[in-house]
Amino acid sequence: QVQLAESGGASVPAGGSLTLSCTTSGLTDRRYCLAWFRQFPGKEREPIATIYSGSGATDYVASVNGRFTISQDRGNNTLYLQMNNIKPEDAAEYYCAARRNWGCAMTIAFFDFWGQGTQVTVAS
């Protein structure tokens, strides 16, 4: 069974940086997709970035492109989200997600496994 666990959420000042981590277990497949999503209060969870294990290819939504970086340390089974130049509108609950074998996509329905979330707040 695949399990994901996020950590690293904190309160940061606007313009600051933060790195979120997601430890994974049970992902024994050669190819899989990992992603970061975020959810604002009262809103549906939305994608931020994906990374495909097969090629290392990454994808970002426009609102974070150039500020956030998704990366993976396969040796430590850890997914990261480096967040730079954080804006007040980045305050949200952040989730990591995983899907085995089938490429990558930026939709909630694509992913089978989810972490419990980690909170990021922004002090303006």
Record keyword descriptors for this entry.
51% strand; mainly beta; 124 residues
Question: Could you explain the architecture of this structure?
Answer:
It is built from no helices and eleven strands. It is mainly β and 124 residues long.
Concise account of the structure shown:
The chain has strands spanning 3-7, 11-13, 18-25, 32-39, 46-52, 58-60, 68-73, 78-83, 92-100, 113-114, 118-123.
Annotate the secondary structure layout.
Blueprint lengths: L2 E5 L3 E3 L4 E8 L6 E8 L6 E7 L5 E3 L7 E6 L4 E6 L8 E9 L12 E2 L3 E6 L1
Parallel strand pairs: 2-11
Antiparallel strand pairs: 1-3, 3-8, 4-5, 4-9, 5-6, 7-8, 9-10, 9-11
Q: Calculate Rg over CA atoms.
A: 14 Å
Please report the total strand number as a whole number: 11
Shape: globular
What is the ordering of alpha helices and beta strands? EEEEEEEEEEE
Largest sheet: 7 strands, mixed
Separation of the first and last Cα atoms: 40 Å
Strand content: over 45%
Structural class: mainly beta
Low-confidence stretches: none
Number of helices: 0
Rounded average pLDDT: 95
The level of helicity is: under 10%
